[in-house]
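PT: before anyone asks, these are the final sequences, not the draft ones from last week. 1256 residues across everything. Please model them as a single complex and drop the result in this thread when it's through.
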Amino acid sequence: MFSRNALTLTPIAAACCMLAACGNDDNGTTYGGLVASSAYVAGSATGDPTLKAGHYQGATVCVDANGNGKCDSAEKSATTDSAGHFSLKTADSGDFIADITTSAINTADGAAVSRHLILRASADQVKDQGDAGIVISPASSEVQRLVEANGSSYATEKANLATRLSGPAFNQGTATLSGTDVLADVNTLSGAAQYALLYAYNELGNRYTYATTKFDRGDKYPDALAVAGGDPRLSGLSGITAGETVPADTRKAISFEQAQQAAFNIEGVPAYDNIFIIMLENKSTDAVLGNSRAPQVNGYLAQYNQLTTYYSTGNPSEPNYTALGGGDDWGITDDNWFGCGAAGANAPTDSAFAGGSASDGQPLPKQDALPPLDSKHLAGFSTTAGAPCSTSPTGGTNHNAPGDNLFTLLSKAGLTWRTYSESMNPGQDVRADSIADPAVVDTYDETDSDGTHLVGTSNYAVVNGLYKVKHGPSIAYQTARKLPEFVADNRTIFGTQYTEADWKKTSVYTVPDGWMYDQFGADLAAGDVGTVNFVVPDQCDDMHGVGSDTSCSNNNNGKTDGITRSDIYVGKVVSAIRSSALWKNPQKRVAIVIMFDEGEGSSTSCCGWNAGGKNSGDAPVTVDAIGTATATSQPSGYGNGNIGHGNSIFSVITNQQDVGTAAKGVKDSDAYSHFSLVRTLQDMFQIADPGVDASYLNRAKYTEAFIAQNLTALPEFAGSADTHFDSVRPINHAYVIPANYVQRLNPVDVNGSLGTDGTVVTPQTGPDANQNNVWALK
Amino acid sequence: MRMYMKFRLAAVLGTTLLALTACDGGGARSTGGAAAGGDGGGGTSPALSLAAQVGQKAFFDKTLSSGKNMSCASCHSPQYAYGPPNSLAVQLGSDPEQAGVRAVPSLRYKDATPPYDDNAANPDGVTLASAGGGFMWDGRAATLAAQVALPLLNPVEMNNPSKDAVVQAVKNGSYAELFRQAFGANVLDDSDAAFTALGEAIEAFEHEDVSFHPYSSKFDLYVFNKIGGTLSAAEMRGLVVFNTAETGNCAACHYAGVSFDGNQGLMTDFTYQALGAPRNDRSIPGNPDPIPANDDPAYDDMGLCGPYREDHTPAQLGTPDPYCGQFKVPTLRNVATRSAFFHNGVFHSLNQVLHFYNTRDTHPEYWYPGSGGSGTPVANPDYALQPRYVPGASVAKFNDLPAAEQGNVDEEVPLGSGITPDDNVNATTLGDGVRPREVGAEPAMSEEQMADLACFLGTLTDGYQVPDAAPSSGPCVE
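LR: through. Structure below.
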């Protein structure tokens, strides 16, 4: 990094000479600079992407005198050379634009640019960098966008971006970037600072490419599902339930500046840097909310934000996690291994993994093409040829889910993901359940925040299935398991009952040399957590229950020690995140979600569910470029899925509430489901495009407008008495609930059931106190 | 939507037509009276597999009985939700001199029933494992395919002398060729194999044909948030009674939630309970159809502990055995279309059943025969089995169970108090220390709550047609 000055002096000096030699004529100033790029190269197996630095060759550079985001013919322009350099003599004043079309080359990977991209550098930046030292990059665009978003100054946002990118970075050391550094050519940096800036280039470059798409396409602004009040497109559609809030559509074609902002607030969901989703098990809202056995979880709910009408989408665990991973449960109604029902084209194509090490140094032992073939490692495994869960199934519901999912989309975008799972056996195949280990023995002994001291069965040995792949949101997806980084992204997190020393006594696998017991803690310290992180406690710390350790006892009524045990664990995880440099960096946007895979009792859901039941004839759909859906033929068993399993709590904590000015205590009672969460994550990390329905994963695309326009392909939604409830929207609180609308809580088990505190659960009538967004940044 | 409805109706008509042809008239099955329960609508069956097509033929084949006068459908009538087409407590056999020993259950919504297990997981995920699963009132058939054999070979039912006789009837039947196509050219040459295949065929029909799980009730419209599914005020109050542990507590066993294999709303948790139903015998004045077997005072039908199920027969009769008196919890779907209730069919109206649950402990004189006493008999309410009660008479409570087994009766709400002993919070029975309701005490439900509950149970009837306009008056409106 310190070599930067030496490297960059030369071109600046050269440019000065050139300027001196050419001189200013009365037709303006001669500017010089470059357009810097990054390229994501697929194939890294460490969990951190391979990112290369380069320049854009063949980009058109101009001063955007009229501020319309285009290099107009009246605005003089220049074209960048093979080193990304430009020299432009112009009398125009304003921001610089680099118009990078598909005829430009990204020298970072030598490939033609795949989508039109406009980058810019502000006039203030030019003043700062000098006429001859202009660097146009995703970072320069970002600084100017922030100036416009916040009504602040170039100096402020330059410093803020430096703060944002500084700190422990990707286990490469501490990145220390000055404001000058973040706006410099990334090619001139090195080490952690360069990688941190490359990661930002890539992420920001994706966003600005998307902004350019929106601008070129003339999208209306804002996105339909971000319009305050409700989706204005519904006013012209038939089949929408009467009485819904549908505002008039007063939106106009998006401007360049609006597009820049819209790309960071897709469908009203702000861009975040990282999210941690802590998964708990099997409790309805009434078993947790107000439960004195869960003081910490209830503390977060009371102090921070929550969704009060959140629905699971399946039963039991595996369909819910699979829905969280890709927006559909594919008809899975059990917890069985991914080979079940996977016949013919669905048969697993997993490759053997040669071994290696993760970005944080975790040694990764080799894995065979499939995990050990027995029911201890693979739930439901059958040795009977032809049986649904054998390696040669002739029937059953396919458990090897097809197509894209959050993990493949993140990977393709050069973004990172992790699943941090507690209590994997050291050395085990990450696609297999953990197994009993008589040599790993300890006594649970922890204290909750309210002083409750919980001691479990003395010297209790590790039982089968503390770690279960049914609780892995990526596991069911074939394409996720085929990602080169798949093994490296399945990481460890600290335990409670069993220590690092305990696990090292294992008698069932060989502990890899240098095995890391707590990658989660290490990654928080080294800045190597993922963009999207699922945190999966083991079956004693997640309120599920397994074995007979008394501290692990669980029941769906919320009246067992397992609740306390899980509350303690959640507290530890949240505390670890909140103690990290990442969380404390005021320019980062980091969120924690505490949620459950499913409630209990009744089979209802919302928001993209199979709203017609098992006879509905629902099937996955294909969607063409203009959003027309065509039903595929129904896969065996598909109709049994996506039916739901009731309500549960959903808590949101953001670092902007701790180190910034974001409001606390936001309650959003609009109806959301796992499919809504998938849509929200796609918006949050810009791995979908609201202008392209097909870009949303599976049932996450089933918005109210989409369903109304495609009802013949979606028979499960025919005859709906509440089309808003039945359809997907991002979690953004844009919709205003009508005055007489009664909150739909899981009807069959909430009506008349008693909450933990003995009161009948009363659904809310009418809108929320305010329309604040649980993800709001300020 | 219109197209969808039309298609659905066509499928239903098809089923009915086929049922009629297979049934060669006879007039035993009326299409009136419970048409709603017979509608198999609510969805469309995919084309039946070959095996299921065989099963469909066999299901309506009267030649599969000794007198060539009785098919599966004779007792499991499609017009009555595959339950009995009349109010008889037990049905007559193919040999009309014979009568069955238990009421005929509905064959609808059986798909998710697991095989019987003494420690079956409860589908609600909460209740501790207990006896559960299986087919027949005592769970002695592990699968629907295995269940088929029991009525076929039972002398008091279809009365075939052997598997061979059944297979011979199939061979002579119109679908022998279809059978061979489905199960192999030589399948009918081996009676054991063919008989097993016949069970599999009928099971396939029951699994595949949507009429066995139509989900076409008003309740389904309600759960799935469909137009027409708005419950009336009375029905909604009834749902609350159904769910509320302190009043109806029905959902505790007639579990409405998510079940195994993606099923839901089955209104049973597949468990077994001893409810202490009165003996269906001649001790009930004016009893329209006492069970003939009950004429023998030494005969006791005790469900899980026998006499038909044999693995829990007490080692020594007359000693307490926890399995005695327990019968399977049936689905409540289409319950309003039935007129014979409980394993012994002792009740003939839903109203009577609800009152039994509510007053078994508080007013046992309504339900069980009394002896002794003196003075002017007091008239019992019209729903009671026993029309009157002599003051001071001693009442033979739980008279369908030997005294030693009466501790097994369920004392959960609304039957009993539901109050468990401190040292056994999971107890449910008298013998485990759950307190009964005191005689003469206030029952768990009011008359209004029971009326509302009946209204809610009415929403569980398949084939619901949404009226053009919601009714503005009637017993189940307000």
